[in-house]
Amino acid sequence: MTNNIKGWQIGAAAAGLGLAASFFYVRAKTKQAEAENPPQGRFVKVDGVRLHYIERGEGPVLVLLHGNGVMANDFEHSGLLDRAAEHYRVIAFDRPGFGYSERPRSKVWTPQAQARLLHHALQELDVESAIVLGHSWGTMVALSMALEAPDFVRGLVLLSGYYYPSLRLDAPLMSGPAIPVVGDLMRFTILPLMTRMLWRPLIKKTFAPMPVADSFRRLPPWMALRPSQLRASAAESALMVPAAMSLAKRYPELKVPALILAGTQDQIVDFGHNSERLSERVPDSELQLQPGVGHMTHYAHPDQVMAAVDSIAARVGEPVLMRTPQAEAMARASESGV
Q1: Could you give the CA distance from residue 193 to residue 277 in angstroms, rounded to a whole number?
Q2: Which of 11, 176, 191, 241 to pair with 151, CA 20 to 30 A apart?
Q3: Which of 125-129, 222-226, 234-238, 325-329 has the lowest mean pLDDT?
Q4: pLDDT (tens digit per residue) in 234-273
Q5: pLDDT tens per residue across span 148-158
Q6: Are 152 and 145 contacting, i.e. CB atoms less than 8 angstroms apart?
Q7: Which of 183, 185, 69, 65 minimizes the C-alpha distance to 115?
Q8: How many CB atoms are located within 10 Å of the residue 217 CB?
Q9: Nearest Cα to 278, choosing from 145, 148, 139, 119?
Q10: Average pLDDT over the chain, rounded to whole?
């Protein structure tokens, strides 16, 4: 009995030391990552929340909303932000809790809540209307903004989105860090280390069947593995199914044109259940499938994404010069009703 008690005490002490070591290691890596990757954009404070955003270019406003787990600079790495900035005033937000944007714990950050916050932020930046592009989880925020502020959102470009609820085992498995106390302990100690070990296979699956883009490898893993961002990612994993369930009822109400792009070999989101289905239920929409492409459509074919943006701009009468040949063809097809 005494030996068992001593063994338990030794095990508990060893576990405690391991957690303490993990805590200090994670804290050091977080500080290092932030020191090596300071904010590259600007800040705006709205509704009590400080948001970080990257802004470039001039012309009609194009808003970029990233997916779960990454930051606004994902659009830089894909090359989409710089291409768009040649003809648009591009504003790419770190959504709440990602990058350098705050995510107060006093609010449940549903797509609707994020859409309202970002809409208010855009108004603070003197934006009167915008085309909104969302990728993955960001598509639900884009759709929410279009539903809540149809006079503000001129059109939508939706990439690899999750639009309809489905059975997803990964959602509850990835939601742990959002749980108070236990989740906090995990994300400040062992979870960043575990996720770092799984980083390469996770990213490989996200890009599959295509190879991981060299430009994406510039994303510092420890920026995404900071405890604050892990909490935001976990919360969005937990919200994914209920958010899609809530939004799905309202898609027929959309009053703005939408171009929906998806890869036919997406291993993260089933394009048939989501993108094809959405295109059938949104009144003014067009579906463009990318054969052999996975979840990262903006890395696979940024020219096609820009052509989609230009096509929406032409549809809503935005004066964009020097459109690509693809955009010209798409615009003519839309105008003729093809």
Answers
A1: 38
A2: 241
A3: 325-329
A4: 999 999 999 999 999 999 999 999 999 999 999 999 999 9
A5: 999 999 999 99
A6: yes
A7: 65
A8: 12
A9: 139
A10: 89
Q: How many CB atoms lie within 10 A of CB 150?
A: 13
The answer to whether 305 touches 327, Cβ cutoff 8 Å, is no
Tally of CB atoms within 10 A around 324? 17
In the predicted model, what is the mean pLDDT of residues 282-291?
Answer: 95
Q: Tell me the CA distances in angstroms from 38 to 42, 89, 99, 191, 220, one per residue in order.
A: 11, 23, 10, 23, 12
- pTM, rounded to two decimals: 0.89
d(C-alpha 115, C-alpha 214), whole Å: 31
Those residues whose C-beta lies under 8 Å from the C-beta of residue 158, and which sit 6 or more positions away, are 133, 134, 139, 142, 143, 258, 259, 260, 261, 275, 278
- Domains of the chain, residue spans: 37-335
**Domain covering 37-335, topology:** Rossmann fold (3.40.50)
Is the separation of the CB atoms in 157 and 164 below 8 Å? no
Rg of the chain's alpha carbons, rounded to an integer?
Answer: 21
Summarised one tens digit per residue, pLDDT across range 191-240 is: 888 889 999 999 999 999 999 999 999 889 999 999 999 999 999 999 99
